[in-house]
Amino acid sequence: MSGLVEDFLAREKDGLAGLEDEIPQAFQENGNFRDQDEQHNSFSNASDRSSSTEVPEKIKKWREEQQLRLQEKDAAEEKAKEALRKQAEKELEDWYKRHEETIAKTKTLNRESAKNAEKECVAEVEEMEPGTEWERISKLCDFAQSTKASKSLKDNSRMRSIILQLKQSPLDREKA
User: Fold this and answer.
1) How far apart are CA 43 and CA 49, in angstroms?
2) Cys-Cys with 38: which of 34, 93, 108, 110 at CB 3.0–4.6 Å?
3) Phi and psi at residue 148, in whole multiples of 5°?
């Protein structure tokens, strides 16, 4: 197989051997087909065109006016942002005040309800009669069915039914 490759390369080398003389000198040095005079003329023509196409006075004036309008708009926007920041800070402070007040009210209500519940519990202990234990337990349990079916809460329906059954027909101490 290497013989085929060598034959191909030899044929191509022979076919391209005369092309080196035909390539102009400018291409070999600069890497393009134009000679140096043509290159110089094309560059000078480009600079002549750019100087002849100056920006008209009306466009210059419009650009200056546009720049001024943009600066005014930027300044107005900064003022509006600052006003919104101040308003947001004030609203946030007000919200924190209301939140602290709500928490304080909730704490006092919870303390009062805990004291009342403790007083009721102590009063019931004093009035305790034999056989009313399950009634007292059922009062302490919340038997209201919640409308939300939460996955995080355990199912207490069996415990609820047993406590209600014991409340209605307490166990006899003699059987146990």
Assistant:
1) 10
2) 34
3) -90, 125
37-40: long-range contacts at Cβ-Cβ below 8 A with a sequence spacing of 24 or more?
none
Number of helices (H), then strands (E), belonging to the chain: the values are 7, 0
Report which residue type is found at 38. Answer: E
Interacting residues of 34 by C-beta distance below 8 A, sequence separation 6+: 26, 42
> Taking Cα atoms as reference points, which of 161, 159, 170 lies closest to residue 132?
170
Residue with tokens 């337990």: 137
DSSP 148: S
4-29: buried (b, 16+ CB within 10 Å) or exposed (e) per residue?
Answer: eeeeeeeeeeeeeeeeeeeeeebeee
**pLDDT tens, residue by residue, 7-52:** 888 888 877 776 666 665 545 555 555 555 555 555 555 555 555 5
CA distance 139 to 133: 10
CA nearest to 163, candidates 128, 137, 145, 130: 137
| Pairwise CA distance, residues 97 & 102, whole Å | 9
Residue bearing tokens 């019931």: 124
Residue 94 has pLDDT above 90, yes or no: yes
Task: Count CB neighbours of 30 within 10 A.
Answer: 13
